Amino acid sequence: MAGGLEPHLEALRRELRGPAVLSVLVALIAVAITVLIWRFVQGRRSSRKAVLLLGLCDAGKTLLFARTGFPQSVITGTPGSGVVNSSLLVFQSTNVTLIDLPGHESLRLQFLERFKAAARAIVFVVDSVAFQREVKDVAEFLYQVLVDSTVLRNAPALLIACNKQDVTMAKSAKLIQQQLEKELNTLRVTRSAAPTSLDGSATGGPAQLGKKGKDFDFSQLPMKVEFVECSARGSKGEEGEADLEGLEKWLVKVA
């Protein structure tokens, strides 16, 4: 009986050494690697729990932060610069920490450097009323954020919050997007060429923003970018009812 089984066993051994089994093993290894990469990416994302509020001075970040409707805001003192008295506003929950970073020019990049690695998402607040006057400064700061190597690598979700929409002269989110894309494209063109040393060799320039050879638009970025219109003030100023529905829905989504 054993002799009768031997041919079948030998055929089975040959099948196990055949190309079909090899294909199955390769597929299983590929699946295992994909699962490991997915777990690694998810682990990195879950370790990044900060949502950073960025923007120029007087864009309305702090009032917007205070009126989001999220509970128990905590004020943590931080050292001033000698120019302005700075404080850091923090909302902490189980899933995310919402951090309002100072908008003063002498402080904003310093605080971005401190918190950028922990950013799961970024809210960039724009003063929709003063936008036409401040567009170059807004684009300059946003450009510095978008070409940062850590931000590019982690690709946190980005929301451009067009604040102060309760004011008649406020610019729409669509116009703000178009003007920012135009200004960012200009900045990219003027800064894309790497500086050269005295011997003519390149010394290295900033990261490329968007796709080379094409006019810049936000869809070219590695992170998802959304625009929302909002107002931290109501029709009666700070006592009025804020319009932050779009912002709050976005915060819940990224949390």
Automatic annotation (TrEMBL):
The chain crosses the membrane at residues 20-41. GO terms for molecular function: GTP binding. Keywords: Endoplasmic reticulum, GTP-binding, Membrane, Nucleotide-binding, Receptor, Transmembrane, Transmembrane helix. SUPFAM superfamilies: P-loop containing nucleoside triphosphate hydrolases (SSF52540). One of its GO terms (cellular component) is endoplasmic reticulum membrane. The keyword Protein transport does not apply. The keyword Nucleotide-binding applies. It is found in: Endoplasmic reticulum membrane. It is a single-pass membrane protein. SMART domains: ARF. It holds the Pfam family SRPRB. It comes from the Eukaryota. Belongs to the SRP receptor beta subunit family. This is Signal recognition particle receptor subunit beta. The gene is Srprb.
